[in-house]
Design goal:
Shape of chain B: globular
Strand content of chain B: 15-25%
Structural class of chain B: alpha+beta
Oligomer: heterodimer
Largest interface: A-B, 61 and 56 residues
CATH class of chain B: Mainly Alpha
Number of helices of chain B: 13
CATH superfamily of chain B: Cytochrome-c3 Hydrogenase, chain B
CATH superfamily of chain A: HybD-like
Order of helices and strands of chain A: EHEHEEHHEH
Distance between the termini of chain A: 19 Å
Radius of gyration of chain A: 15 Å
Number of domains of chain A: 1
Order of helices and strands of chain B: EEEHHHHHEEHHEEEHEEHHHEEEHHE
Number of strands of chain B: 14
Number of strands of chain A: 5
CATH class of chain A: Alpha Beta
Radius of gyration of chain B: 22 Å
Largest sheet of chain A: 5 strands, mixed
Number of domains of chain B: 1
CATH topology of chain B: Cytochrome-c3 Hydrogenase, chain B
Strand content of chain A: 15-25%
Amino acid sequence: MMRARVFGLGQPAAGDDGFGVAVVRALRERGVPRGVEVQHLSDPSSLAALLDANVPVVIVDAVLGSPPGELLALTPDELATRAPLRVSSHGLGITEAIGLVRVLDAGADLSEVRIVAVTITRPAGYRYGLSAEVAAAVPRAADRVLQLLGVA
Amino acid sequence: MRGEKTRTIQVDYLARVEGEASLTIRLEGDAATAVRLAIFEPPRFFEAFLRGRSFMEAPDITSRICGICPVAYLMSACHAMEDALGLRVADPLRALRRLLYCGEWIESHALHVFLLHTPDFLGFPDAMSMAKKHGEWVKRGLRIKKAGNSLLSLMGGREIHPINVRVGGFYRAPARGELEALLPELRWGRDAAAECLEWMSRFDFPDVERDYEFVALRHPDEYPFCEGRLVSSRGLDIDIRDYDGHFVEEQAPYSTALRSRIRGRGAYLCGPLARFDLNFEQLFPEVQDLARRAGVAPPCRNPFRMLLVRMVEIAQAFTEAVRIIESYVAPEAPFVEASVRAGTGFGGTEAPRGFLYHRYTLDETGAIVGANIVPPTSQNQLAIEEDLRELAPVLANLSHVEATHRAELAVRNYDPCISCSTHFLTLNVERT
């Protein structure tokens, strides 16, 4: 029986944008409790179809910000306030995907959705690997995810 | 923010790193004297990154290029490597690959059709606004997308960036029972796709006809995924190995991306409209009937009607997925073993957005010494720019906001790939 879900978002070939993927890997290496599903998504649009289980959800992602390597734990509303809706010709962001679920399903319980984000500077181009500051935040983020899910 | 120490952190917005695009149109009166779609394209990075790597790593590495169509990169890379090594993958492994591709077409097309494109036709700024009035259709679209994801999840090992695929086949082949568990949802999807197509056929489509040269794979027995000859609506009919002799890539001075053209001619179009036009008779008869009832049949040269063609391809993919599973017999081995040799291999498959070409040269140890990847979006870039040039007289008479919106609609028809090309579209209109 699934008790909680963790989604790591990001592109590992784009430097610090691979943070969510690195946290997913760290959680898998550490071992997560039974019933916690850990998944990497590179397209946030997928969230709209996956937030339907009414279980606690933690989304791990990178946000542009300074100084780099700071860890944030946000509710969807806090994220929406701080991150304006993006104009995209090609997909949905986290805020839009969550908003869509809210509109479609009045019964959906999103009160236990949290976003664990790390601040990064905008990647200049494609490369593999995290910067030292952002890499240092990976174990802390993994701790924070498990703590938010109440399974630490 | 419980437990965090207090300090000021400046956060701008989510840092999804995908391509960015800017579109510049220079108008003189009603005429466009320049149309420049500048896109950022990562395949060049990956080509350099691949050099020195083993042939076995190319599928997984290139599948990172695009978050929306990783299967296309896996398939083109595998076919190119198998071509270089003289390996042939036959049924039932071949059918499993088609099944995996069905999953990708379903989920990629559903994202575009329901969450991005339909709001344009119904006059909503985005899917969220549209869902307030048309929630049942959006729910249906999300369920269709999820059914595609479930195929990718089972066949690929994980939904995004499947890792179960390898040169020669799969690391593990699914058991019949695992596939059969998906049948009820896939049969539902087949019926739902037909209903959605009927609904969308009643939308108002702008009356636009373009004189495209369509380019797509064509296979004698099936709607094309991984194999066939590369053909065009103006008589091109070549082996994939001859791609470089007939197509050329050029660097646009205003873009990091390369644009393709057919040697001696120019712009061409690949993707759903091209596949549909060149392969209509290879759709299942019941899917052909669905298309005709929805008022879409070749020749279809209206870029806005790509919405309906994507829906037709979703119906085709659900129908094929059900058939493959119903007749599935698990393979004796999940993959065919490759013996390494030096050589050059060519692979071209039909990504949701169109033909995706890979070429690799290997040394005698199987290390990659050269790689060339041509994504569908760079092949379509010239055609997109030509659409916008024809739209110029309309844009000239609109406000900046309206012109941006109208130009975005025109670009969105093609579903240009974010990772492979466009994300934020910023429009500059220069009037002289």
